[in-house]
Design brief:
The protein is mostly helical and about 290 residues long. It has a domain at about 55-240: MetI-like fold (Orthogonal Bundle), CATH 1.10.3720.10. It is built from twelve helices and no strands. The protein has helices spanning about 5-30, 50-60, 60-95, 95-110, 115-130, 140-165, 170-175, 180-195, 195-210, 215-220, 225-235, 240-285. Helix 6 (about 140-165) runs antiparallel to helix 9. It starts with a helix and ends with a helix.
Length: about 290
């Protein structure tokens, strides 16, 4: 037996174990969503059924948590993305000696435990509500949104910073010299350049909010999100309806990834077609 054959066998074994470790639990959970026993059971497979998806829709607790998670996620995107963009722009323009201190301050929420963020958010806004006599701000959805934004906006800022490092500011100087205002330069030059980063930051912000538990469980008060509901159900005893929810989330994630890849490839084809058309036009001009 040659060393090359041994390497191939070991590589195949490692690949099998690696992907089995990653996707094995997902496959097992997906099977339980279509099996008839009331307790999640992948083997033996008794009979194929769709009833657990119906049970999922009729589960008011899970549905309420799901809608709250979606609402909080959208609110976090609307708040964290602009905050992250503002933080990245300030980081690019602040004086060099102060950048280290500024970076430490704005990134510190990422290093702070979620428990601390959730509790401090509740205490702070409870005092604000008492002082201003505004009971509306002491709301679970509102507090969970603010608690999550404290660290998710830092994630967004890091994404924007990586994009701004490759930004050619001479374009802004040229636009200003030609009579454009700061507002026009921002909307017509900077924002189009940051479009990929904006999409990425929005996706990261929504997913980070949707799956967050530590900060949310302390800031949500009497309300509940999908993660807090699932945590309670797992402690009390899970049902195949939760497996059905997992199947739906997996399907949506796969569909989103496939659609994104299709859109990216179509965009690459359009860019190549434009480059080829420009090159062909240049060749014709030179020929003439």
């Amino acid at each position: 037996m040659s060393s090359r054959l041994i390497w191939r066998v070991m590589f195949a074994f490692y690949t099998l174990v690696f992907f089995g470790f990653l996707f094995g639990p997902l496959i097992a959970m997906s099977i339980t969503a279509f099996n008839t026993p009331a307790y999640p059971q992948a083997y033996p497979f008794v009979e194929f059924t769709w009833k657990w998806f119906g049970e999922l829709v009729r589960d008011r607790g899970l549905m309420e948590g799901l809608w709250n998670s979606l609402l909080i996620g959208l609110l976090v995107v609307c708040l964290a993305v602009p905050l992250g963009l503002a933080g990245a722009m300030v980081m690019a323009q602040v004086y060099q000696p102060a950048r280290s201190l500024y970076y430490l301050v704005v990134v510190s929420p990422v290093l702070t435990p979620g428990v601390i963020l959730g509790i401090s958010t509740v205490i702070f806004w409870r005092d604000v509500a008492d002082v201003l006599r505004i009971e509306g701000v002491y709301n679970g959805i509102f507090l969970a949104t603010l608690g999550q934004c404290t660290f998710i906006s830092a994630y967004c800022m890091l994404i924007f910073m990586s994009r701004l490092q490759r930004y050619d500011r001479s374009q802004e100087d040229a636009a200003l010299d030609l009579g454009a205002s700061r507002t026009q330069t921002f909307f017509h030059l900077l924002l189009p350049y940051l479009k990929p980063a904006i999409v990425s930051a929005a996706a990261i912000a929504f997913l980070s909010s949707f799956e967050n538990y530590n900060t949310t469980t302390f800031a949500i008060l009497a309300d509940k999100t999908l993660t807090t509901v699932l945590a309670g159900r797992v402690r009390q005893g899970t049902t195949p309806a939760i497996s059905a929810l997992a199947v739906i989330i997996i399907a949506v994630s796969l569909a989103g990834a496939i659609l994104f890849e299709i859109a990216r490839r179509l965009e690459d084809k359009r860019v190549k077609a434009r480059v080829q058309a420009a090159a062909e036009a240049e060749r014709r001009e030179l020929a003439v």
